[in-house]
Automatic annotation (TrEMBL):
Gene3D superfamilies: Glutaredoxin (3.40.30.10). PANTHER family: GLUTATHIONE S-TRANSFERASE KAPPA (PTHR42943), GLUTATHIONE S-TRANSFERASE KAPPA 1 (PTHR42943:SF2). Its EC number is 5.99.1.4. One of its GO terms (molecular function) is oxidoreductase activity. Residues 6-203 form the DSBA-like thioredoxin domain. It catalyses: 2-hydroxychromene-2-carboxylate = (3E)-4-(2-hydroxyphenyl)-2-oxobut-3-enoate. This is 2-hydroxychromene-2-carboxylate isomerase. It comes from Alterisphingorhabdus coralli.
Length: 216
């Protein structure tokens, strides 16, 4: 019996990047279907929290994500460009945000086609693994889509022509995450139970095995 789960994910989250490939590998090894549910990063959803939260938090997140990546053997570097246009010194968020809305809509369009997890993994590597500058330029995203089994021209056209509906679906993803009992990413939700963080993957697998998850 195929089990199903939802993965709430942000293209700006280093921890989402560290988790998505491992969850994708899990679906290849186990009789498991994971639906990617992209959300906007908190810097876009609730930018005020950047100024009211502990000022040490951003520094810790950068340090810990780099450390976690080294521990896992996953290459990582801060994205070039950052998916969110932001002054990291002042934390100010720019009014115009061309990158994050584009990539989020592409991710949601991929989910509509049942390939959101694969696309998120391929695109997240472009953004986060440090191998290229300008992940948003040229044919980088087109090749990522191709590796995920998608037609990029079709995705891009839909991201433009159906932007309002895609944005509504993304907002619905955020509402579903909160309804499941969490607010952050990456969070896997299985049978109504949230597993938050890239360090809860083994716990999520254990729970699904309790529910009868088997290898393919």
């Amino acid at each position: 019996m195929t089990l199903s789960a939802d993965l709430f994910f942000s293209f700006r989250s280093p921890y989402s990047y560290l988790a998505v490939g491992r969850y994708r590998a899990m679906t290849e090894e186990y009789d498991l279907d994971i639906t990617l549910r992209t959300v906007l990063p908190i810097a876009i959803r609730d930018p005020d929290i950047l100024f009211t939260g502990n000022p040490a938090a951003p520094r810790y997140i950068v340090m810990d994500s780099m450390r976690s990546a080294a521990f896992l053997g996953i290459p990582i570097a801060w994205p070039r460009p950052d998916p969110v246009v932001q002054n990291l010194m002042t934390r100010e968020i720019a009014e115009e945000q061309p990158h994050i809305h584009r990539i989020v809509r592409l991710g949601q369009a991929a989910t509509r086609r049942g390939k959101g997890l694969a696309f998120a993994h391929e695109a997240a590597q472009l953004i986060w693994d440090g191998s290229i500058d300008g992940w948003n330029e040229g044919d980088h995203l087109a090749k990522a889509a191709e590796r995920a089994g998608l037609d990029f021209a079709e995705l891009e056209a839909e991201a433009v022509s159906d932007a309002e509906a895609l944005d509504a679906e993304v907002a619905g993803n955020q509402a579903a995450l909160e309804e499941a009992g969490h607010w952050g990413v990456p969070t896997l939700v299985f049978d109504g139970e949230p597993f938050f963080g890239q360090d809860r993957i083994d716990v999520a697998l254990w729970r699904m095995e309790q529910a009868g998850l088997k290898k393919r």
